Structures are given as C-alpha cells and as structure tokens.
Amino acid sequence: MYSFKNDYSEGAHPKILEALSKASKEQNTAYGMDSHSLRAANLIREKIGRSDADVHFLEGGTQTNLTAISAFLRPYEAAVSAETGHINGHETGAVEATGHKIVTVKADDGILTPQLIQKVLDQFQNEHTVKPKLVYISDSTEIGTIYTKAILSDLCDFCRKNGLFLYLDGARLGSALTAQGNDLTLRDLAQFCDAFYIGGTKNGALFGEALVTCNPELKENFRYMLKQRGAMLAKGMVLGVQFETLFEKNLYFELAEHANHMAERIKIAVRNSGFAFLSNSPTNQIFPILPNDFIKKLSQDFDFEVWEKTDASHTAIRLVTSWATPQDEVDRFIHCFYDFFE
Amino acid sequence: MYSFKNDYSEGAHPKILEALSKASKEQNTAYGMDSHSLRAANLIREKIGRSDADVHFLEGGTQTNLTAISAFLRPYEAAVSAETGHINGHETGAVEATGHKIVTVKADDGILTPQLIQKVLDQFQNEHTVKPKLVYISDSTEIGTIYTKAILSDLCDFCRKNGLFLYLDGARLGSALTAQGNDLTLRDLAQFCDAFYIGGTKNGALFGEALVTCNPELKENFRYMLKQRGAMLAKGMVLGVQFETLFEKNLYFELAEHANHMAERIKIAVRNSGFAFLSNSPTNQIFPILPNDFIKKLSQDFDFEVWEKTDASHTAIRLVTSWATPQDEVDRFIHCFYDFFE
Amino acid sequence: MYSFKNDYSEGAHPKILEALSKASKEQNTAYGMDSHSLRAANLIREKIGRSDADVHFLEGGTQTNLTAISAFLRPYEAAVSAETGHINGHETGAVEATGHKIVTVKADDGILTPQLIQKVLDQFQNEHTVKPKLVYISDSTEIGTIYTKAILSDLCDFCRKNGLFLYLDGARLGSALTAQGNDLTLRDLAQFCDAFYIGGTKNGALFGEALVTCNPELKENFRYMLKQRGAMLAKGMVLGVQFETLFEKNLYFELAEHANHMAERIKIAVRNSGFAFLSNSPTNQIFPILPNDFIKKLSQDFDFEVWEKTDASHTAIRLVTSWATPQDEVDRFIHCFYDFFE
Amino acid sequence: MYSFKNDYSEGAHPKILEALSKASKEQNTAYGMDSHSLRAANLIREKIGRSDADVHFLEGGTQTNLTAISAFLRPYEAAVSAETGHINGHETGAVEATGHKIVTVKADDGILTPQLIQKVLDQFQNEHTVKPKLVYISDSTEIGTIYTKAILSDLCDFCRKNGLFLYLDGARLGSALTAQGNDLTLRDLAQFCDAFYIGGTKNGALFGEALVTCNPELKENFRYMLKQRGAMLAKGMVLGVQFETLFEKNLYFELAEHANHMAERIKIAVRNSGFAFLSNSPTNQIFPILPNDFIKKLSQDFDFEVWEKTDASHTAIRLVTSWATPQDEVDRFIHCFYDFFE
Q1: Angle at B212 between CA B206 and CA B215, to 5 degrees
Q2: Within D178-250, where are the H helices?
Q3: CA-CA distance, A142 to B141, in Å (whole number)?
Q4: Which residue, among D87, D152, D82, has the nearest Cα to D120 in the 3D structure?
Q5: Where is the Aromatic amino acid beta-eliminating lyase/threonine aldolase domain (chains A, B, C, D) (predicted)?
Q6: Which of C97, C258, D269, D274 is most exposed, with minimal Cβ within 10 Å?
Q7: Across residues A274-300, what is the average pLDDT?
Q8: How far apart are CA D179 and CA D261, in angstroms?
C-alpha cells in the first residue's frame, strides 16, 4: 500500500539527516543564535536578494501563521483570507485564538485579487467592524493553484495603496516556484510581500518553516513573539541545519521539482484516460475526477484522500506527491489507469 | 572553550539520530497518529503504571506549559507558581498571553508547599480576584532542587482537598528522578499529579516533551488544543521516534544519571576547595559561590552563566551538565580548582 | 429633522428616570447584589417561569455577547451564527478577541435552522478545525424577522441532540415578542434556550441587558466573568432599578408594542403606495424599497439609514421606530408618501 | 445602620439626574458622538489645557483599564504596577485576560518611584521575559495615599527616558486632587501622563470614567477598541451628560472636597482618641487602627470593611466617605469615639 495522502508521510532527506548528525556533536548557542541558523538565514537573504530581511525559523505552518499574524496586527485588525485559506479552515481557530477575526472571501481558484479585497474594504469601514489590515495568501494554494507575477504584483500595489500588509503562506512554496507556468522567484516574493514563509516541512525537512520579514515595520521584537508563542526552539540549531542544507546549494528546489514531476506524470495519465481535474494545479497536489468504481480499485493498492463527489458516478480525489515519492510507485499507479481503461 | 551554560547545546543522542534516519524512510501517518508515537505513548504508560493516561508529544517546554495550562483552566482561573517558576520568569508571558494570571509565591528553595498555597487561597476568595485553580511546580526546580515523595504527596492531598489541579513541569525530570536523595518515581508522579511532562529537549532529544495527563477531566479534546496552539507536528513521527528510543530501554534515565554524575564531580571539587552553593541541588544545575578572581580565571577556558553577586568578592555562577558532557572536560574544569587553590 | 436611524437616540422612559432618582438617595450594596437587582432578577424569573434561572445585568449587547460566549466555550470551540448575525458583522471582532472563531452560515432571512447547522457539523469534524459548540441567534434578527415557536423548538431539539448550546441575542426581544405573527413567550425562550438576553437599551432603558442562563452547566462562577470583562457595574443598582421598572408591571412589553405599532403604520403607507420591503419584518426595523427621488425628498425632513441599492432607480432604506417615537412624527412621515404619490 | 463601606453605595448627584432626565427627551447621535459627549470632552480638554487630547467615556474602572492597556501594548509588552495596584489585585485578571502580564513591585505606600521601576528594567532585559512598557499608577492609591508633583514629574522623566508609557488610574482622582498636601492639577497630569482617567463612578456619577489620552502615539483607532471590548455605549449621551454636568462648572471638585472633608473630620476624632492609621491618607479612604472591642461597638450602627489585624487587640478598618456622605452621620460616628473613650 503506497500513500499519496500528503507530502509529510516521510521524514527528512538523507542530506539533512547527515547534517543533523554532524551538528549534534557540536556545542551550539541556544535559541536560534547558533552559527547554522545564522548561516541559513544569510543563505536565504542571498537567494531573495534582500540583505536587510529578517529570517526566523519556526516549527510548523500553523505556528508560523499564528505567531506572525498576531505579531503584525493590532487587536482590532483582521486578516483577509480566501475561504479555502489554511488559516480559515485547517488551523482550529489558531488565529482567532490570538484575538483576530479572519474575514473570508469566496475565490473559486483559491487566488485573491484586488477586486475581491476591494469588496471587503467597501464593507468594513468604521469602528463597528474589524479593520482589515493583512491579506493572507498561499502559494501554492490549498487547491494546488499558483499565483502569477502579474497578479501578485497587482495585489502588492493594491495592498500598499490601501495600507494593507501582504503575507504569503509558503507551506508548499517550493512546489509553486518550480511549477509549470510559474513566473515568480524568491526575489519577487521579497519585493511584493511584507512577509512570507518558506515551507520546509513539506519539502524535505523533518519540520520547520523559514519566516522572511521584509517590511521593517514588522520586524521589531519578533523574537519576543517567538518565545511567547512557544515557537523558539532551545536547540535552534536543529532548524538552522535543515535550512542550511536546503539552501546551501539548490536542494530545496530540486526536491520540489521532483514532487511536481511525479504529479505531472500522474496528470498525463489522468488526461490520457479522458478525465478532468477539480482545479488547475501545476503543483504537487492534484484533484482528478474519476469514476467511483475505478477509485475503489485504486484504493486497494494506494492511499489518498477522497475529496468530494462531483456527480452520481464520479468523485474528485486528492493526490499529493513529494520529494520522497518514488517514480516506480507513480508508475505502478499510472498502470492502473492503463489497465483499467484500455 | 567548553560550555557549561546549559543542557541544550548539543543535539541528540546517536541512538535517536539513528532511529530518526531509519524511520525517515517509512511512510508514517501524520499528526502524531503514527506507530512510533503510539508505541512511545504506550512505553510511557507502562513506565508510569497507568494504562489510562493520555500521552501527547509537544515540541518544547514553553509550548507545553502554555498549551496545557490554557486547556485546563477556565478564563477566570489562575496558575499558582513559585516566583522562580519557569512560567513566571522565563516564558515571555506565554501563559498570560492565553489569558491567565499567574499568582506567585515566594519560595526560597523553589519548592511549593501546602502552607504557601494556603496563603494564596486565603487571599483570593471572591469574584474580584482570579480563582487559583492550578498549582504549577517543577522537578527539578529552576534552581536545581528536587521534590521529595513526602512533600509531593502532601501537595497532592492539599490540591485534591481544595479542588486544585497539580501540574508538574518536568523539563529536567530525568535529572530529578535520578538525583541523590530522590525518592520519587514516574509511577509516583502519575499518582500525585493531574498532569506532568517528561522533558526530552534537555535529556538527549533534538527537541520534544511528553505531556502525560492522568486526570480524566483534563483529557477531552486535547488534540484540538495541540493544533490550535501550533503544537501539532505534521510529522509527529519525529517526536514519537525520539521518545520511543528514550523509553524502549532505559536510555532516558541513563542519560540523566550521566549528567548528574558530572555535576556531582564538580560539586566535590567545589566543596573540597572550601566553597558553598546558592541552592542545595543534587541535579545537573549547580550554583557554586566562588571568588571573583577565580571566576575570571575559569572563564578563560569555560563558558557558564554568572548568576548573582553574593558579596563584594564572591559571585554565584550556574554550571549545567548534560547527557553529552564529556568527563574529560569536567576533569579539566576540576583541575582549575586544584591548580588555583592548592 | 426627525430621526428613524435607530432605537437608541432617546434616553430612558420617564418611569425609569423617576425610579433612578429615588434609588439614588439610598445606600445600596455594590456590584449587583443590591435589593433592586435581586428583585429585578426575581421578577424576570417569574415571567419566564424558571425560579432556578440565573439572571445577570450587563451594560450593553456587545458586552453581553462577548462575556457570555467566552464564558460558555472552551478555547477550541466556536459559535455558529448567520452571516447577518450581530456578533459577526457589527461587534468589531469582540468574540474573536476572546479567542473564539465564529462560523458563519448564509441565511437569507437571518433565521438559522437545523438544516443550516447540520451542514456546519458535517464540515467541522476533527481537531484540524474548531468545534462548533454554540448556536447564536437573534430575535428579532438584524433584518427585523422573527423566530416562530416551531422553528425555535426544532432548533432546540437539534442543539440538544448534537451537544450544542443555544444562545439567543434579545437586543430587540421586546419587539419580537410583541410582533404580529409571533407565537413565542419569555417562558418558551427559557425552555428552548440555554441562555438568552433581554435587551433594555433598545426598549426604554438608559442602557442595560438582562442575561438569563437556564442551563445549569453554564452558570458556575459567571460573576468572575462579569468582573473580568469589565461588565460588573460598581453601582449595580443602576441596572437593577431599570429592569425592576420594566418588569414590575408590563412596561417592557407596552413600550415594545408601541414601537411595533409605529412601524406598522409606516408599513401600511409603504404598501399602499405600492412598494415592497427587503425583508419580511413585523418588528420595529423595516426596510422599504423606495424610488431614489422620493428617498431624496424624505431625507429633507427625516434621518434614516440608506441600506442598499436594489436597482438603478430604487434603494432600500432602514427605518427604526422605538418606544419613544411620537405618532405625530410617524404621521408626518406617512404624509410624505401620500403627498408624493397621489 | 449607615455604611462607610465604599464610595459607590449611593446613586448620582441630583444635578446629574436632572440633566439626564432633560437629555432623555432629545434625539441624540449614538455611540458617543452626541453633542453632550462632544461638549463634555471639550470641557475636560479646557480644564487640562490640552486641546489636542483625546477624551473617551467608558462605563467603569476595570473596563477602562483593560481597554486602555490592551490598546497601548503589543502582545509581549507588560504593565508594571504596585502589588497593591487595582489591576493586580481587584480586577479578576482582566488585564491578563487581554494577554498581558502585570509585573508587580512592592511599594509600601502604594506609590511607584523611578528606583522601584529601574529594578524591574534591570531584571527584564531580553526576549525570555516580557518587555515592561507601561507604568500603571493610581492617584489616590488603593490605600488612600497621593502622588506629589515632584514624584510624578520624576516618574514622567524616567518613563520618557526609558520608552515607557505612564498611565494613571484616576478612579478616585477627585479626592486626590482636592486632598490636603496635594500640589497636582489636571493640567499637570496631562503634562506628565501619556494617558489617565478621571473617575466619575466614585465621585457623583451613576457610573462612568473619562479616559484622557495625551500621547498621540496612543490615540489611533481607539474607538475600535471601545467597541471590541464592549465599552461603547449605544446611548453614549448617558455618559456625556454626566461628565458635562460634573465639569461645566466645578461640581467634580466640590463633590470630592466634601468627601475629603468628611474623612478629615473622622481622622481628627481618631487622632484625638489617641489612635493611628495604617497609611498616611489625606483622601476619602482612611484606615484607622482601633481596639477590637470598640470596632465591635461601632459595627452595631455602622457598616465598614475590617481590613487587617495589627496586633492581638487592635485591627485596622477601612472607612470610605463620598460626595453623598451626610455630615450628621459623620458626627454620629465621631460621637461614638467621644462616648467610648472619654
């Protein structure tokens, strides 16, 4: 039984484990001030072309989102998110638990645009409602779609004109930036976003996300927030080493490319068998709509999430590939299509 | 330069790293429902003799404290802590950030007693003050002292009689339970405490604490709290594997014994050289009071925290040993005493 | 210029002011334990037929909602509200500021039903989302509509079956219970709801809401919550006297009937002039859809809120009557219709 | 039985009740934007000599403290208070419930000084502790003592030099500013404090406190905070009218002078009878230390709080006078001394 349920079933890439074993023998400064964390931060600053950016390493996505958003907002300010946004639907009210409302917007492809946010601003205009202040987006989105440079640039202009912070959740940023059709780079993100995070958990690390803060207004005293929210690891080296390994060469992007490539192979098989997708995803999460009997067959050998019924005889499933997905499992999966539909 | 600054300078014990490397290749269920986490929880349940206890794995001490305390209390309820308690002085207001006051008690040796808590209860009696509801203790304490079975048993009785929860912070529990003079066991803790945590970060793990909840009243829906506070690791296996390794045999206690043994060697040298300690610590944190010129000399080769001045020519320093402290560094340190004071 | 903008433009009914003047000379026990508050609570207990209910007096609607909801819920639990619900759109994130998410449901007439809530329950099923626990409804709703006994009874059954609390915001409860078509009584509310509040601010008081808690599970230590949220008035007598006056005879319902009667007169004129309404409101808030040029004319002599455009030449306005609305102003308003459209 | 238990037993001064009755007939703009509130704010601005100050009216002291402090601080910032400070001991953790720690300082007379705060700053220096940011003081203090211009000026200088906000709780400000030995004025407060509130509840109003914000940095969007914390009264006029009446002439200070005068009469009798006080209070709260048998006698005719035992045969009691305390009750009380001790 092979699982396509998510991109966090396996542990870490061997290079990361090796680096951790090596660093384990050293005595490192605590709480993220060790040489590995400092170097990892510098490597990221180089990749994004912003020597002035703050880089902090946190343990997970929900933790990063709640720590950053509660640090950036005043009590009466709110985050704006797509209904499908991870902070809205899959973080157990973590942002609200820090006191902030999330204002949601219906966006069929998971992508926020200036037009969608303008509607929110029109509706929230005085002290009887929260004040929308931060725009939360994900790239890739929770349904696998990606932002283009044109849209993100527009969104950035709109946010700056309206005094909004633009924050990007990059839990699957590697997959987004190496996807077919992507024209964004880390440098672009650093230019367009006030803050964003580079996801490690879903791209080769045991765990860990790198929060990059570009807007100087959002930097002050952030380490206090890390500590207060339980996000400051005593052995910060453990995070630093992982990101050092991911970014000292090109490992972060190589791993993401592999994941996308594995998804692409499956997509071709789906299309060749005559089936469509729930969303237009060039990334490592895909949502093919398949006949129910075939899904039953597939589930004898493979694990995946059943997403939603689309008609009486068809259902969308979610397949997630990762840096660790072996090509032979993908091929075995693909063969099911050819066996079944030939 | 060797550091006695803390017990989280080194990474993980080699056995843990090996186990992580091995498990990294598997596909594990996410969010702490993997076989390693389940087995680790069972191993702990066996050691504490409570098959009904809940065991959850979290990433760090502050995170564990804030998640547990905010789960256990109603909004108007407070934690009672020694002034020296970690939640009071070293967690950046993490508990208050979840909405709860910490009521502090002066306890010179860091140990809370029924008498000290009774005074709080006498003072907090109606709705114009918070309602003390949870007693927070640490074993070993922040100044290295330990609880005895007699005191903990009394405290337990007192808490039950007064409707208070007894919660024990075990960041350095290994060191406490293997200290000279200790008469407590994990089984005792499970009997006396409503909840407690077994610290991994400071005893051989890369990171991680095991929260054990014995009082059924405190168990319900705790996984919601884990997720909301950003404490649920996607690859929960990473925590499970570490505690599996620590508890499948006796590694957890062996590592702690080593740390205590190293501290004991230093204590003998301190005493032989005619010096006293700030607190009566049988654990891996000791606070010798030394002449200032000798401290200056020591600091040429060793790193440690300067704790507090005790008179014009003497100062207490903090020395922390760990599972990773090599005996030869301890011996080199001890020789400084003999060289200087002979 | 006469204003139909809201039902809180005028101060208190003369009988309330007289009673306040009289009680001002007495020495009363503080913090709501005075004889007036105790008597007012008893009067309400009699009207609802529940001698066991808790009755607390608070200063305003937002305060009551945030205090009650944060008292009733655990940190990971959420309130379910119609999108139009006051806590969602008009309280500046007050509930979220206490840490709780509001899950919203689209309900065109502002009325929640078991079917609508079932959908929420289907969607929120594990620890990756909040746990829906409290159903928030308003009677009358924010758009003037009212609950029937049949719907409220169904909702009650559904909530009990699913372990949900049913909480009713009665900011305009007087108007709802005296509306044409209403078949609910205070006794019914006490039977169907776990808690509800009886609004004073919008029905004759200077300010004040009476929170009635029927479910014993929700009563404990509520006075701690009152104090902590800044809702416990030192001179609690000021609230007690007002509710004593409203409920010692039938003043509360008389005032509400007058408000409804004034709205009814306007509704007839609207209908006679051939116009419709945005919602089917039998209460003191009505939303006629009128020609833009007529609205312009009306606004020369009357104040009201322009609600929303319905087509190129028509707009819905909101008219609110109150216990203080003089009939001659209503008649003057009505005459504008007859003058304009004859 | 006459009560000296507190200064909130009676209702409002007759002039306030008259003004409320008159204003009740008007139609006023809602939410504190009415002409009475605007005029009351202007009257206060004139008295403090700061036309640029923001003035907001809230319902009570705890509410004002929690709303102001949570508006002024970032999540990791803390308030510094005397142990006796109202926010620390008598507000049910209201400030902590908004997420902020209160750091307490032992100050025997309830007065904070630069020296006392410097010690806190020395202790809280990095991200492992909260960041002290706001100094909370009360004038008069919770034990009746008052600040002098010299001390407040020093405190102000110290706070500005150290980037701290100085916030003054003026629940009993009238009594402080009219006390014997006081050399402070409202103008001084506006110069020295970043924000302070002028207490109405304990000085003639039914309820209400006027928050004055002088530091421009603390003003922005405060009305959002008012609404979010449930502190924005729909009929804001009710608060405006009361402060208009208190400040349009000199009523606020006349009422406070009366209270002080009544306390002074009792103090003379206490001293003449040979007894001392627990604190040096020139204000309307006094704490005479009396023989237990005499206290027993007094309690047959008068109500007051028994404060604390001072020796086997003596106890301190708390006596509070107010604007409403009749001189004949004071004289009757005094006669008990002369009867008993002659």
Answers
A1: 165
A2: 186-192, 222-228, 237-248
A3: 45
A4: D82
A5: 14-287
A6: D274
A7: 97
A8: 9
* Predicted confidence (pLDDT) at residue C342 exceeds the cutoff of 90: no
- CATH 3.40.640.10 in chain D: give the residue spans: 14-251
Structure tokens given for D299: 């309690």
- Paired tokens of D33: 């934007």
CATH number of C252-341: 3.90.1150.10
Q: What is the DSSP letter of B288?
A: B
Which secondary-structure segment (H or E) carries D218?
Answer: none
Determine the topology of domain B14-250 in CATH. Aspartate Aminotransferase; domain 2 (3.40.640)
**Segments of chain D assigned to CATH 3.90.1150.10:** 252-341
DSSP label of B93: T
Question: How far, in Å, CA of C71 to CA of C57, rounded?
Answer: 15
pLDDT tens per residue across span A17-70: 999 999 999 999 999 999 999 999 999 999 999 999 999 999 999 999 999 999
Backbone angles phi, psi at B29, to 5 degrees: -60, 150
Nearest-angstrom CA–CA distance, A113 and B318: 56
Shortest distance between the Cα of B329 and any Cα of chain C, in A, equals 47
Measured CA to CA, the distance from residue B116 to residue D129 in angstroms comes to 25
Q: What is the DSSP letter of B145?
A: -
**What average pLDDT does the segment C263-271 reach?**
97
Q: Which two tokens stand for residue D173?
A: 């400000």
Amino acid occupying residue A261: H
| Contact with chain B for residue D126, Cβ under 8 A | no
Residue A340, pLDDT score: 86
**Residue D195's closest CA among D46, D32, D73?**
D73
Q: Tell me if chain B has a CB within 8 Å of the CB of A63.
A: yes
Cα distances (Å, whole numbers) of residue D281 to B213, C164, D110, D302 = 51, 53, 11, 21
Across the range A214-220, mean pLDDT stands at 98
> How many angstroms separate the CA atoms of B143 and D168, rounded?
37
Amino acid found at B246: L
Closest Cα in chain C, distance from residue A140 (Å)? 20
Question: Residue range B98-112: average pLDDT?
Answer: 96
C9 → closest Cβ in D3, D30, D92: D30
Instruction: List chain B residues with CB under 8 Å of A28.
Output: 9-11
Q: Is the per-residue pLDDT at C340 higher than 90? A: no
- Of chain C residues 12-51, which have a CB less than 8 A from chain D? 12, 14, 17, 20-21, 23-30
Q: Do the strands A102-105 and A209-213 form a parallel or antiparallel pair, or are they unpaired?
A: unpaired
Report strand pairing: C54-58 vs B54-58. Answer: unpaired
The reply to whether residue D234 touches residue C5, judged by beta carbons under 8 angstroms, is no
First to last CA, chain D: 23
Instruction: Give the three-state DSSP class for A200.
Output: coil
How far is the C-alpha of A116 from the C-alpha of A111, rounded, in Å? 9
Give residue for tokens 């649920």.
B232
Interface test with D, best of C96, C235, C322, C330 (most D CBs within 10 A): C235
Question: Between A90, A92, A101, which is nearest C96 by CB?
Answer: A101
Which tokens belong to B260? 């205590």
Domain(s) labelled CATH 3.90.1150.10 in chain A stretch across 2-6+252-341
Disruptive mutation site among B207, B223, B225, B320 for chain A (greatest number of A CBs within 10 Å): B207
CATH architecture of A2-6+252-341: Alpha-Beta Complex (3.90)
- Distance, in Å, from the CA atom of C93 to the CA atom of B205, rounded to the nearest integer, reads 41
Residues B77 and B131 sit within 8 Å (Cβ to Cβ): yes
Confidence at A108, pLDDT banded by 50, 70, 90: confident
CATH 3.40.640.10-classified regions of chain C: 14-250
User: Closest Cα partner for A94 from D323, D248, C195, C129?
Assistant: C129
Per CATH, which fold does D14-251 belong to?
Aspartate Aminotransferase; domain 2 (3.40.640)
